Amino acid sequence: MLPFRRFSNEQIKDLREGNEPAFQHVYLFLAPKVYSFAYRFLKDKTQSEEIVQEAFITLWENRQKLDEERPLEPYLFTISKRLVLDSLRKATSSQALREKLMLKISENHNETEESIILSDLMAFAEKAIQELPKQQQIVFRLSRFEGLSYEEIGERLNLSKNTVKNHLVVAVKTLKTHLGNEEMIYALLLLINFF
Question: Residue 28, SS3?
Answer without folding.
Answer: helix
